[in-house]
Structure formats: C-alpha cells, structure tokens
Amino acid sequence: MHDSHQATKYFIKFRQLAARVQWGDAALRRQAYNGLAKRIKDDMVHHEKPNTLIGLRKLVQAIDARYWERKGELSHETRASGSSGNKSEHKSDSNKSDNKSGKGSSNPKQKNHNSGSTQGKGSTSEQKKPNVPDLSSKLGKDGKLTPQERQRRLDNKLCLFCGTAGHVAKDCPKSSSASAKARASKSEQDKSASSGTDSKKD
After folding, report:
1. pTM
2. pLDDT tens-digit profile, the chain (202 residues)
3. Fewest CB within 10 angstroms: 2, 76, 152, 202, which?
4. What residues contact residue 67 under an 8 Å CB cut-off, 6+ apart?
C-alpha cells in the first residue's frame, strides 16, 4: 500500500489474495500490517494495537478516512488563503495604480493652470502698459508745452492736452487729472481772451 492509496481498496485486494492461501488470522493480520502505508503505521502508535484482522481493518480504515478528510481541509484552506491573498494584492496594486494616475493627472493640470495664470498675468500686464509718446520735443523743462508747440496747436485747433483734433483740452478723454483739465481749461480761456483782445485791437 502506497501513501496515495486508500485503505478500503487495499483490504479488498488483500481479502482476494488471502482466499488463495490457508493462513490463520494471526498470520494474515501480521501480513496486512506489514503492507500498510507508512503514514498509517505512524498514526497507529497513538492507538492500541488490534489483536484480530477485523480489528486491524477497522482501525486502519478509520485512520485512513481521517487522513483523507484532513487532506481535503488543507486543500480547501490553501485555495481560500490563495484567493484572499490574490484579492488583497489586486487591491493594493489597483490602489498604487490609482495613486500614480492621480499624481500624474494632477501635475499636468497644475502646470496647465499655472501656465495659464502666468500667461494671463503677462497679457494683463502688457495690456496695462500705456503707450507713452515721446514729448521731449514738445515740453519744456517746466513740464509745460513749449510756446511754439502751444501756438501750433492753437493755430490748428488741436487739443492742448493730447494734440488731436475734434475736442478741447477740458473735454479730452485722455486726461484723467482734474488739475490737468483745469490747466487746459485755463489755457483755453487764455486763448479766448487773447483772441478777444486781438479783435478789439482790430
């Protein structure tokens, strides 16, 4: 009998062979014991050794049945632990992949957002930069229009503030300073006064 054999089949075969010989019970019992698998003999040390062939057969079949029952339990436990281990590994792998994808997806968004905000700031600052004309040839050291430039604007009916036609200095849309408008208005009044004086002289 090998370790992978079952005791029931072993004793069926043993009875078939025992029927061919004229041996007594003691001889048959000794021969049946000698042919048992090592695992069964090792377990029999925990039991009282039977004195008959029938007693030996019952004990061996009980030990063998318990052995195969335990084999099934171990197989079931191995499959259960293996499946739970695979599930936990799958979960941990999925969590790692989610974290990686989450990090990977957040960084480009942040970069895009930052670059967008930077571009927005740059365009805004560029828009806010005013176009400052070169007035060095038109303004004197005191910051006022030179007499020649002032006279040119008066002759051509140009705004004394911005130098364009179509309005006067006090209504100039480019002037945001009240004091500048007041100075321009005064210049307009001076112009009117000078033109009135010229007409009286005439």
Report:
1. 0.39
2. 888 889 999 999 999 999 998 899 999 999 999 999 999 999 999 999 899 999 999 999 999 999 999 989 999 988 888 777 666 666 666 666 665 555 544 454 455 555 544 454 544 545 555 555 555 666 666 767 788 888 888 888 888 778 788 777 777 777 665 555 555 555 555 555 555 555 555 5
3. 202
4. 39, 40, 43
Residue carrying the six token digits 């084999």: 71
C-alpha to C-alpha distance for 40 and 42, rounded to whole angstroms? 5
